[in-house]
């Protein structure tokens, strides 16, 4: 059997994750995301790859699997279903289904209502697309159609994130989406059994990074924040509304409690209360410590972190603000950054990956003058820190995932080409398995070995044994008899 994999997004790039796999006569789409670095049609995956020959989208795609709620993995769902016309099954976990429409609507408001972008989905389209979703539970095997079966595994990363194993007959593929092999303050580590798939499709956001210990990163983060506010500065921490935001809020809340600090901490998104309710409902997706203490205290009910109001940005004195989105490409985080960036007393801490083309990426590159558009420029004088709290697997974690499931082939997606190339060489040298990292629109074809089950009759087996005992034929001759027999079976099966 041949397995074909083609990225429609996230091929040698981070953004608009969308991988099309074809094997066993079935076509499965893995994620359907949006690119945060573009404001035109390039923000969505290239679905014309599927429909370019006049193909009907519903005849070409058997199902869509969504790994988690981040917009670079789910942001194009309403566009794909309501504008392109896909009407087939969509699978995701319950937390992903609960959170996904909230983030989609939040981004739609920024994109359409505030910026006036066209060719974008509506609020009703978001609701209609979610009606097509079927929930899949962890470790649940779901038969989609015929012999196509899917199974979800815990991925860490964010609440509800999962890995998918897709099986057709004796062949299987594992798709990781985004995952984290290190447990943190509110989530556990990714896990999958030793399923030995034909192909592992894995993210490679941090393919060349081996992070320092989590404890060291946390201490550095708290020290930077503390020093800045003690000197009267304001600290901006761009985060996405759910995920790293909760992780860092738990960390800074406990530090403020220990130190007895009264300096205000704010959280910008209006989804704070909704997020808390979601975490309460899906507390079983968090780690053991959060679950154990939940009855006595909900770790997501913060005493020191208050809701943000836009006029606070002009208040004198120190403060800390968690503001979305995480790449400074729009919304509150960008608006506040414009105001605070010129003052060298202030600081911005970017705790995650920033896609090329976003303001966050330019800030990390050290740009001192950043053009937002033709009419707006930002003078960047504040202190810039990049402390990675991103819940992606680093190079060590990617190797751990490969060792955990033992694939026969590996496909890299959701990463940068040169970093993929470097890690691919390491894996091929050390583990001796083929690694591919195709760009968008390029198909990789992997031919799998065909397994033929042969039940030898007892008489045939006994005949070989008797001949060997009586020394009427040598071992080489017995082997030759068996080889001829198996070759004849193989010819008959073709």
UniProtKB/TrEMBL annotation:
UniProt feature coiled coil, ranges: none
The keyword ATP-binding is assigned to this record: no
Molecular functions per Gene Ontology: hydrolase activity; metal ion binding; RNA endonuclease activity
Pfam families on file: Beta-Casp, Lactamase_B_6, RMMBL
Keywords of the record: Cytoplasm, Hydrolase, Metal-binding, Nucleus, Zinc
A GO term from the CC aspect: cytoplasm
Domain of life: Eukaryota
Sequence ranges assigned to domain Beta-Casp in this UniProt record: 245-363
GO biological process per UniProt: snRNA processing
InterPro entries: Beta_Casp, INTS11-like_MBL-fold, MBL, Metallo-B-lactamas, RibonucZ/Hydroxyglut_hydro, RMMBL
Keyword Protein transport tagged: no
Compartments (UniProt record): Cytoplasm; Nucleus
Metallo-beta-lactamase domain mapped to chain residues: 15-233
Gene3D superfamilies (UniProt xref): 3.40.50.10890, Ribonuclease Z/Hydroxyacylglutathione hydrolase-like (3.60.15.10)
Cofactor(s) required, per the database record: Zn(2+)
Family indicated by similarity: Belongs to the metallo-beta-lactamase superfamily. RNA-metabolizing metallo-beta-lactamase-like family. INTS11 subfamily.
Protein name, as recorded: Cleavage and polyadenylation-specific factor 3-like protein
């Amino acid at each position: 059997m041949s397995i074909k994999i083609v990225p429609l997004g996230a091929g040698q790039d981070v953004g608009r994750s969308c991988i099309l796999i074809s094997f066993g006569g079935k076509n499965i789409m893995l994620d359907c995301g949006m690119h945060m670095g573009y404001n035109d049609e390039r923000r969505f995956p290239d679905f014309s790859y599927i429909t370019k020959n006049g193909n009907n989208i519903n005849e070409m795609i058997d199902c869509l699997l969504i790994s988690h709620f981040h917009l670079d993995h789910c942001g194009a769902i309403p566009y794909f279903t309501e504008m392109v016309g896909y009407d087939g099954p969509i699978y995701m976990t319950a937390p992903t289904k609960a959170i996904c429409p909230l983030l989609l609507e939040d981004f739609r408001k920024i994109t359409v209502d505030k910026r006036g972008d066209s060719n974008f989905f509506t609020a009703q389209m978001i609701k209609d697309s979610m009606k097509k979703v079927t929930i899949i539970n962890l470790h649940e095997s779901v038969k989609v159609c015929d012999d196509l079966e899917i199974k979800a595994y815990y991925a860490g990363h964010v609440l509800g994130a999962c890995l998918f194993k897709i099986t057709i007959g004796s062949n299987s593929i594992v798709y990781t989406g985004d995952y984290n092999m290190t447990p943190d303050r509110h989530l556990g580590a990714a896990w999958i059994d030793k399923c030995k798939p034909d192909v592992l499709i894995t993210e490679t956001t941090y393919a060349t990074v081996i992070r320092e210990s989590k404890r060291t990163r946390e201490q550095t983060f708290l020290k930077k924040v503390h020093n800045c506010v003690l000197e009267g500065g304001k600290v901006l921490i761009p985060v996405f509304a759910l995920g790293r935001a909760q992780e860092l809020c738990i960390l800074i809340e406990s530090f403020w409690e220990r130190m007895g600090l009264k300096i205000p901490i704010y959280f910008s998104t209006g989804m704070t209360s909704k997020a808390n309710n979601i975490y309460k409902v899906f507390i079983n997706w968090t780690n053991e410590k959060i679950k154990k203490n939940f009855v006595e205290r909900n770790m997501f009910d913060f005493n020191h972190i208050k809701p943000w109001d836009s006029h606070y940005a002009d208040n004198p004195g120190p403060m800390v603000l968690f503001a979305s989105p995480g790449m400074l490409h729009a919304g509150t985080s960008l608006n506040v950054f414009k105001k605070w960036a010129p003052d060298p007393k202030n600081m911005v801490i970017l705790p995650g990956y920033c896609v090329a083309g976003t303001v966050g990426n330019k800030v990390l590159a050290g740009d001192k003058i950043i053009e937002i558009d033709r009419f707006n420029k930002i003078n960047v004088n504040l202190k810039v820190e990049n402390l990675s709290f991103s819940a992606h697997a680093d190079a060590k974690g990617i190797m751990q995932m490969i060792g955990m499931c033992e694939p026969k082939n590996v496909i890299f997606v959701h990463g940068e080409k040169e970093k993929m190339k470097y890690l691919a060489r390491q894996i091929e040298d050390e583990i001796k398995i083929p690694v591919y990292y195709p760009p968008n629109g390029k198909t990789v074809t992997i031919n799998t070995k065909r397994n033929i089950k042969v039940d030898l009759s007892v008489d045939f087996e006994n005949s070989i044994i008797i001949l060997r005992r009586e020394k009427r034929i040598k071992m080489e001759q017995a082997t030759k008899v068996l080889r001829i027999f198996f070759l004849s079976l193989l010819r008959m099966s073709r």
